[in-house]
Model the fold of this input.
Amino acid sequence: MGFGKGSISQAGPSTRPLVLLFSPQDRVRNILVAGLYECGYQVIDTASHYLAIMKASTLAPRAAIIDITRTNNKGFALAVALRKSERTKHVSLLLMVPSRPENILQEIAAEYEGDDAGVPSAARVMRYPFSFAELVAAVESIVA
Amino acid sequence: MTDGRAQRWYDKDKKLARQLDALYRIHPKYEYPVIRGLLELVKESDPAILEKFVIPSDIERWCRRWYDKDPTYWIVLNGLKHADEGLLRRVAEYLEEQLAQGDE
Done:
């Protein structure tokens, strides 16, 4: 798990599922890509929600990590698009949201946390700030 | 690098501080193998510390240090903040050896 010896002993970057990472924040994206790669995940990342939708449709990641910031609602649009599409509605979602989300973000969280539409993927919500350990644990719980 | 106004977390260890200052000045041609080797050393010794870094929502506000420039540096140096003295000593020794080779 994580950087632990279990994942090291398995070696190689492709021991774990493919995840999609969307964030408009370059620094967040770069750090999480590097960290998840070291934990054995294959990661496709983008700052464009259009590209994220395309990549999710063609590459079928097991999970999508979506950064929803106060100043950029593209993450929200991405989450909705992934859930609506037949090709991507099975993709598990992990939403990274501000620590005190505005009402609209609370609605998103409530929508996904309370979903009982029968879609098998679970949606997790993670509030900033969080440790990388927490993120890895959340990712592992939704790709399992 | 120290300006007397702000102590870096590794300044308490003079040898480590000296080696990290040297790492800061290393020629880009040599730095990648060194930082990758450092990452592997930490992974073998105490991998859990590499997961302790926190992602704040206003991350750019916190990225003013020289080792914030690169994600691997970020992971390693922020992880080493949680390392015990034994690991920090090994890190200093590793850097001393590697950086001396770079001087040759």
Notes: The first helix of chain B runs from residue 14 to 25. DSSP finds five helices and one strand in chain B. The longest strand of chain B covers residues 54-55.
